[in-house]
Amino acid sequence: MSAHLNAALREGDNPELTEERRKATFDTRKLADEFFGSHLARRRREIAKAIDAIPELHDTKPLPFMTREEKVEEAARKVFTLSKHITDIVDLSNNRETQSLNEMVIGIEGMPISLHFAMFIPALQGQADDEQKREWLDRAIRMEIIGTYAQTELGHGTNLRMLETTATYDKQNKEFILNSPTLTSLKWWPGNMGKSCNYAIVVANLIIDDKLLGPHSFMVQLRDENSHETMPNIQIGDIGPKMAYNSSDNGFLKLSNLRIPRRNMLMKHAKVQEDGTYKKPPHEKLAYSAMVHVRSHMITQHAMLLAYALSISTRYSCIRRQGYIDPKKDEVKVIEYQTQQHRLFPHIARAYAFAFAGTESIRKFEIMKRSLEAGNIELIADLHALTSGLKAVVTYLAGQGIEQARQACGGHGYSMASYMGEIYGVGIAGCTYEGENLVMMQQLGRYLIKAVKSVKEGKKPTGYVAYLAHAGQRHSLIDCRPNEGYAEHIRAFEHIARRQTFRAAERLQKYENSGLSTEQAWNNCTVELNRASRLHTRLFIACNFYERVLDVEDMAVREVLEDLLHLHLNYELIDIASYALEAKKIRPNAVSLVDSWEITDREHRSVLGRRDGHVYENLFKWAKSSDLNQNDVLPSHKKHLLPMMLNARKQSKL
Ligand SMILES: CC/C=C\C/C=C\C/C=C\C/C=C\CC/C=C/C(=O)SCCNC(=O)CCNC(=O)[C@H](O)C(C)(C)COP(=O)(O)OP(=O)(O)OC[C@H]1O[C@@H](n2cnc3c(N)ncnc32)[C@H](O)[C@@H]1OP(=O)(O)O
Ligand SMILES: Cc1cc2nc3c(=O)[nH]c(=O)nc-3n(C[C@H](O)[C@H](O)[C@H](O)COP(=O)(O)OP(=O)(O)OC[C@H]3O[C@@H](n4cnc5c(N)ncnc54)[C@H](O)[C@@H]3O)c2cc1C
Question: pTM of the prediction?
Answer without folding.
Answer: 0.94
